[in-house]
Structures are given as C-alpha cells and as structure tokens.
Amino acid sequence: MVGGGQGAYIGNIHRIAARQDGAWQLVAGAFDVDPARGHAFAAREGLDPARSYDNYKAMIEGELSREDRIDAVAICTPNFTHFAISKAFLEAGFDVICEKPLTATLEDAVALEKLVRDSGRFMGVTYTYSGYPMVHEARHMVATGQLGEIRTVQVEYPLEWMATAIEAEGNAQAAWRTDPKKNGRGGSIGDIGTHAYHLAGFVSGLKLESLTADLATFVQGRALDDNAHVMLRYQGGARGLLWSSQVALGSSNGVRLRVFGDKASLSWFQEQPNELVHARLGGRTETIKRGADDLSEGAKARTRTPPGHPEGYLEAFSNLYAGFAEAIYAKREKREPSAIGRDIPTAYDGLKGVAFVDAVVDSASASNPSWLKPIVV
Ligand code: NAD
C-alpha cells in the first residue's frame, strides 16, 4: 500500500476490505508522506521492517529485488499523486489498485489509461458503490429489459462534512481536497460527483451524449465547488440529473440512484443498501432484498450472508477487492473471470470520471450555459 497511514481515511477501509475474503495480504508499504510516521505505522501493523519503505520509489526498488515481491499495490494517497505513483508501479510490472479520481488532470488520466493498455497490467479503480450486490441487481434488471426503455436517471451524493471551512481548522482531508493543485479542477464534483456519475452509468448502461453544469462554492474563501448540479443528455435520448454536495446539512453519504424506464423504475439508497425498490407501471411496488433466491449471478456473487443480516459499505468494498483478485488471477491463467471478477471498475472507468469532471468544470465556467461532450463516455 502507498498512503493510508496513521490518521488517513480510506487506507484503513482498503485494509479491512482486502482482508475480508483472504485473497490479499498486506506485506509492504510506503504509508505516509512522512517516512518516520510511515515506519511507525508499519510497525503497528506488524509488517517486516525491511518492507516498510521511505517512499514509493524505494518500495518499487526494494520489492523488485525480492523473490516474494508484492503482486499489486493499493494507492490510497491524495489525487495529485495518483498519476506518478501508478505510472511507476505499472512500468515496474506491478498490477495497481488506485483510488478515484484516477488523476488530478485529464491529460494524466489519458496517459495513464493508455499505459495500462500498453503494459498489459491490471488496474482497478475503487468506485465503491459498484461493489454493492443490489447495485449489480439493478444493473442486471436494466440490462435484461425489466425497466423497458430508460427515460431518466436521477443520482445524488450529498454530504455535510464540508459545510463549514474545516479546511482552515486543520482537517487534513479537507485541506488537500480544497486545493486545486492537489485535488484537481472539480471540488465536490471530482470528490463525490465522480462516484455518482459512475454509479448512474454502471446501472443504467447509458453513455453520455453531453452535459451542462452549474457549480457553486458556498463556503467563503474556498477555491473549488462544494455543490454541483449537472444535467445529462444520454445517447439515445434519455436524460439525467446529478447532484453532488459537500454542504448538504443532515446528509451523510446519502448516495441515491433512481432509474425510470417506460415499464418500471428502480430506486437504491446507500443507507438501506440491502434493498432495491422496483415500481411497475400502474402502481405495483416491490422491495427486492439482498440474498433472495432469484437474484442475478452478479448480485449473488457479492453476497455473503442470508437476507436480513445487514451487509454494507465494508462488504461492498470487499467485493471490489475480491473482484480485483479474481480479475488478476483470470488474466494470469488466461481464462474468463467468474462473476465476482466481471463488471468491476477499471482504468477506463477512471478515465471516464476525470473526463466527466473536466467537461463539467468547462461547462460551468463558460459565459453562456453550454452543452459539452466529455472526451470519453
Ligand atoms: P487522507 O488525507 O486521509 O490520507 C492520505 C494519506 O496519503 C496520508 O496517510 C498521507 O500521509 C499519504 N500520502 C500523501 N502523499 C503520499 C506519498 N507521496 N507517498 C506516500 N503516502 C502519501 O486522504 P483520504 O481521504 O484517505 O483520500 C485518499 C484518496 O482516496 C483520495 O484520492 C480520495 O479521493 C480517495 N477516497 C476514496 C473514497 C472511496 O469511497 N473510494 C473515499 C474517500 C477517499
């Protein structure tokens, strides 16, 4: 692992998630931008001190010199570092799991995605919400025509944690997220809007035609947007509306997706992630529960416990790790991955996310509201 040391947020989620199914073991790392803190963290994790490195370059050199070298690296650092670290590991021949957004600039995302293709390495990108079984069930229901022709997609990711200027009060996570050089051009839209955009496309199967965006910064002095509204026109005529907000009081990771077709609609809400609400034309509504016998292969492959026992965020993240492991084994063994290793987020999804943010910021910066097409959809 690179990053994710003491006091960091997502690194610990990666470690919990990776360990859950026994497919991954944490054996080496450069855990902190401060080497001493990184080593102290590695010692607490019980790592071999020889495999706790000062920085990612030393880690690559050290691991390449070992017979029992790492299989893959998880990159859990702020956005602006993803490109250089991923590139170095890919070029050294390692598979990579990288946090979203893939990179801080579109130019870097394009180059990185090309490098993944040219190198033949695997690169997974942790779009968390595509790890949920009921999100896979929703995708399956759309793909098998159970909603009919898709007309509209409503997706939102509201948060309240940056509703005040916490970046000025020593909050490490908020500090780099509000610095355009470290975060990238999109504030809330890059941080959480990318999750919403991925989720909407993943479930609906729709590809974007164009978008028009309105970005706002409500907290005084903040350099990036903390609220975004984006109207989406999908290829084929469907419409979408995406809202991301870091200033939505009362909301805590309330990711919500609703997809409306001409036969039925679906609704999924991350605070009740074990349920999918399916409403058919004419008023019949059913709640589909995780673990039901007749769910799709993709949903079943991501389910660990019987219905009624709650599964959630950590299990969804574990599903990504289980999927990445299966995809890597399948690639090595030159076979098709089983269900858990299919429909997983990869470098191309990461590139699409960065292209989306870039188009959103360009659209919102234009003097007249404009409809723009991201460079990849
Ligand atoms: P954080 O500030 O809590 O942690 C960053 C960590 O990276 C720290 O330990 C820091 O010391 C380390 N670091 C920074 N530069 C480094 C370098 N060059 N080498 C080694 N370590 C370095 O950040 P966070 O909130 O955990 O976010 C990290 C990444 O995860 C971001 O890209 C963010 O967008 C993403 N994230 C994703 C999700 C998700 O749901 N998938 C959720 C939160 C964050």
Layout of helices and strands:
Elements: E1 2-3, H1 10-19, H2 35-44, H3 56-64, E2 72-76, H4 82-91, E3 95-98, H5 106-119, E4 123-125, H6 133-143, E5 150-158, H7 172-177, H8 180-183, H9 188-204, E6 208-216, E7 227-234, E8 239-245, E9 256-261, E10 264-269, E11 275-280, E12 285-289, H10 297-300, H11 313-332, H12 347-365
Parallel strand pairs: 1-2, 2-3, 3-4, 5-8
Antiparallel strand pairs: 5-9, 6-7, 7-8, 9-10, 10-11, 11-12
Helix pairs in contact: 1-11, 4-5, 5-12, 6-9, 9-12
Description:
The chain has 2 domains: 2-128, NAD(P)-binding Rossmann-like Domain (Rossmann fold, 3-Layer(aba) Sandwich); 133-306 and 349-365, 2-Layer Sandwich (Dihydrodipicolinate Reductase, domain 2). It has helices at residues 10-19, 35-44, 56-64, 82-91, 106-119, 133-143, 172-177, 180-183, 188-204, 297-300, 313-332, 347-365, and strands at 2-3, 72-76, 95-98, 123-125, 150-158, 208-216, 227-234, 239-245, 256-261, 264-269, 275-280, 285-289. The protein has 377 residues and is α/β, with parallel strands linked by helices. The strands form 2 sheets. The chain has an 8-stranded mixed sheet. The model has no long low-confidence stretch (mean pLDDT 97). Helix 1 (10-19) packs across helix 11 and helix 6 (133-143) packs across helix 9. Nicotinamide-adenine-dinucleotide (NAD) binds next to strand 1, helix 1 and helix 7.
